[in-house]
Write a structure and sequence with these properties.
about 120 residues, Cysteine Rich Protein, two-stranded antiparallel sheet
């Protein structure tokens, strides 16, 4: 019987009835009202979520918690209080993360993402 096999739901560990709406995500069963972001506890917009170490997050909270910030774009964080998260390809260099287009030579502004570079005086 379905009720016996899924008698405890993933987040709340409460049982459910046949009238309850449930969500099955990666083999885990949730009440629809329990299937929320692990950080802000809000439902997932359009059902879209990101998973990290078994926990599910809305896009905003996932980026705040886990996405790297760009070494160039984040220079403006203190003024605008805005983080430019890197989604997609990340360049790791000089103890920072960069958008490919932001990783450039400080002297000539040439993009360095796909070419070699030499560090000079920390730049």
């Amino acid at each position: 019987l379905l009720t016996r096999r899924l008698s405890m739901l993933f987040r709340c560990n409460d049982g459910f009835s046949l009238q309850d709406q449930i969500v099955n995500s990666s083999g885990q069963v949730w009440h629809s009202e329990c299937f929320v972001c692990a950080q802000c506890f809000e439902p997932f917009p359009d059902g879209i979520y990101f998973e990290f170490e078994g926990r599910k997050y809305c896009e905003h909270d996932f980026h705040v918690l886990y996405a790297p910030c760009c070494g160039k774009c984040s220079e403006f964080d203190f003024i605008r209080q805005f983080h430019e998260f890197i989604v997609g390809r990340v360049i790791k260099a000089m103890n920072a993360s960069w958008h490919p287009d932001c990783f450039r030579c400080e002297l000539c502004s040439k993009a360095l993402a796909d070419v070699g570079f030499l560090r000079n005086a920390g730049r």
